[in-house]
């Protein structure tokens, strides 16, 4: 009989039971005979052993808990363990503690057994690993597994599976791969379960190419992917925008006779609706109808633009709706994304009529959609419908409405909703305060913004980078750079680390005020804090330098960008060209223009503003050449371009050409200023 089998671990009353007695008596014969307390302990241990040996696990768990909780017989598991036969009862006790989710006791007992030179059975180790994983003690899981390996015991596929699961949950995918290689070395090969775990981990961190390689490895090993395998990859591809690949895996499932389930369809619907592929989403829903997840006619009801619910009363009669909450929420969200909010509301009402229980999530989707459309009144009506159905608005509901009011500058209404939120027993969150700070900040009411920071402090809510970012952004836009810097210092003092976006705000404000010294001070502070400068950072500084005539410094920074792995874009080139145009260096402007075209960076109308301005001194022929090149790129000239061209031709004495351009400007619908009116 194998050491790792269940029957080998059950204690037989006639052998192990007697072993316990002989163990006690060998310690102290006199004590065994005379101490009543000792006899009671012995009886309790015997009872626990008997319960385990007879497979009465539930009763044994209760009895063990009572022994340890009351502490009348034993003050701790260690004391109980010191009075039992070893290794038989120790192993069963470890298994029982693991099953009972007494993790501290189980891990302590495991350590004690190992110190005593005992190696727990495969059954007990697997149970311990499973309980550790279920309780999210992933590091401890890997530590126990490593100790099992060190003991010379060969773990089975179950133990490896739990170790792989722990590694993936810790996002240590390299460890996951290492464990799978060890499985191969041990001659068992990774299981489909193990592959699915690592595939899930890779997809979660969007390493979809590596996930595909791992899937191909599965196929090469002649392993049969299951529904979980395919669902993991379909969801992974949908989340990175690989819709075609996801649809390809769905077709592969059909070819391999692997059944699609709700998880499959939900992932596809979410991906398709999120990317605006409504027609493809319709096809998936049609397939769901054919598979019995939706009643016949449901699809036409959802997508028929002329349907208002009339005549659809019998649509669902006697037909089971097998979709879950996630499915209909994805469907509602998809309809809202394409602007069909009223149809989404109609679909939800029809689902509710036919026994589908609505959720707060479904109503929050509608509230958010109406707010996105700018229809706050309908958003509020939706919250009222929500309450009529016995669903209390939650923080997401309130925060959505509050955020919209703040966005539109209706901060008084926003505060009214905050009070209502509190009255309903929902505490304001950091997101609530962030909206208020942003709303009042945009109106220039900075005293109120600081009051909100104080309120957050009193409520025990720690402001985050968005809280401070909103305030700093508003202060910068209001040209209150000193105040913005004070907020930055407060932010750092409270242990909230600024990000690149916040430094970019401060650099932008400094440049707009021509305070380049301050701009570069913030830039240096940013780098010293270990925050990488972004493309926005460099573009802002280059633009600021160019506007202030410091084009040489701007170009030095331009060259520095590439070395930092930050590739210039059209905004970078526009800023540099503009700087050289102001310095009246037409040749340099044209060189930069040619360079950006060679690099495949498409010029914009903004590129031609400084170019045409710079070409004025070269004469109208050069200007017109640049103008024609702009038209060939299908770029529509704006007021600035027309004004420059008209003025130059008029100045050159070519009034007819100037008048022709003026008429062209009018025909194009470009506003004329007073000078060209």
TrEMBL record:
<feature type="repeat" description="PPR">
    <location>
        <begin position="156"/>
        <end position="190"/>
    </location>
</feature>
<dbReference type="InterPro" id="IPR002885">
    <property type="entry name" value="PPR_rpt"/>
</dbReference>
<dbReference type="Pfam" id="PF13041">
    <property type="entry name" value="PPR_2"/>
</dbReference>
<feature type="repeat" description="PPR">
    <location>
        <begin position="394"/>
        <end position="428"/>
    </location>
</feature>
<feature type="repeat" description="PPR">
    <location>
        <begin position="191"/>
        <end position="225"/>
    </location>
</feature>
<protein>
    <recommendedName>
        <fullName>Pentacotripeptide-repeat region of PRORP domain-containing protein</fullName>
    </recommendedName>
</protein>
<feature type="repeat" description="PPR">
    <location>
        <begin position="324"/>
        <end position="358"/>
    </location>
</feature>
<dbReference type="Pfam" id="PF01535">
    <property type="entry name" value="PPR"/>
</dbReference>
<dbReference type="InterPro" id="IPR011990">
    <property type="entry name" value="TPR-like_helical_dom_sf"/>
</dbReference>
<feature type="repeat" description="PPR">
    <location>
        <begin position="534"/>
        <end position="568"/>
    </location>
</feature>
<dbReference type="InterPro" id="IPR050667">
    <property type="entry name" value="PPR-containing_protein"/>
</dbReference>
<feature type="repeat" description="PPR">
    <location>
        <begin position="569"/>
        <end position="603"/>
    </location>
</feature>
<dbReference type="Pfam" id="PF12854">
    <property type="entry name" value="PPR_1"/>
</dbReference>
<keyword id="KW-0677">Repeat</keyword>
<comment type="similarity">
    <text>Belongs to the PPR family. P subfamily.</text>
</comment>
<feature type="repeat" description="PPR">
    <location>
        <begin position="359"/>
        <end position="393"/>
    </location>
</feature>
<feature type="repeat" description="PPR">
    <location>
        <begin position="499"/>
        <end position="533"/>
    </location>
</feature>
<feature type="repeat" description="PPR">
    <location>
        <begin position="429"/>
        <end position="463"/>
    </location>
</feature>
<feature type="repeat" description="PPR">
    <location>
        <begin position="226"/>
        <end position="260"/>
    </location>
</feature>
<feature type="repeat" description="PPR">
    <location>
        <begin position="261"/>
        <end position="295"/>
    </location>
</feature>
<feature type="repeat" description="PPR">
    <location>
        <begin position="638"/>
        <end position="672"/>
    </location>
</feature>
<feature type="repeat" description="PPR">
    <location>
        <begin position="464"/>
        <end position="498"/>
    </location>
</feature>
